[in-house]
């Protein structure tokens, strides 16, 4: 399932390519035909992400809520105006690691998490882009326009030059402003939405009164928005925190550090398109990590391998029906 950084990147892609433009809307699959008919010909007013959910506001106070879930993805095609504020994997802007080391050459991720196309350098390109947790690469330039419908497209949004196809979402619904506000109100704080300081207070207040293990609280979208399996495992390791510790047993400062670490990691994820969770890497290590997801995490996906810090075998267990990776020595 796409974690928070991916959804924020998708929202920024919509902001660059669709906001301020009238769109043609259709549901080739037919499952969203009535909703598409409502959106047809309306101007997109704004795009925003809150955690793992995205909201597109159209004229006449109509909101489109999309939750990609496990299988959803947006495919963009046409003239893609990419965000100049976000680093690119294609090297046009270079890449900067957490310590500020600029890398002049492109770094391409063979694992599929990032792409040279998802959010790139400040240019206009006729490309094909898949935006999900498993981003795909470019299609041939000069392809048919508008692109042919491929597979089960729930919703197609089309301007004169850009196309966005939605496939396989968990949720794709129209909402009134009140309904949209009610949906957002049920979500936990997101460091990139509203005042981060207020978000921190809200997060800490909830965590410190819960008897629930912190590993479950971090995945609860009503407690904090956007954290998924990868960020959860990595944040707990970075904090050297036993995942079974009840929230109410955490020192307040530990809870605050968890929030601030999420704020930092989310910003890195939005900038790079990758869930980079290791700090202070030398340029060569950073290059290897950006190219291979197995080199950019402390514990995630490392079951039975030695801990990078102490050498203890990383444990894999199931908690809340999701896999959890952790080091029983570092995270006592």
Automatic annotation (TrEMBL):
SUPFAM superfamilies, A to Z: Glucocorticoid receptor-like (DNA-binding domain), N-terminal domain of MutM-like DNA repair proteins, S13-like H2TH domain
Cofactors, names only: Zn(2+)
EC number: 4.2.99.18
Keyword presence, DNA repair: yes
Swiss-Prot/TrEMBL keywords: DNA damage, DNA repair, DNA-binding, Glycosidase, Hydrolase, Lyase, Metal-binding, Multifunctional enzyme, Zinc, Zinc-finger
Enzyme class (EC, first level): lyase
Domain of life: Bacteria
Ranges for domain FPG-type: 298-332
Domain Formamidopyrimidine-DNA glycosylase catalytic: 2-100
Family: Belongs to the FPG family.
PANTHER family associated with the record: ENDONUCLEASE 8 (PTHR42697)
This protein's name: DNA-(apurinic or apyrimidinic site) lyase
Taxonomic lineage from the root: Bacteria, Bacillati, Actinomycetota, Actinomycetes, Micrococcales
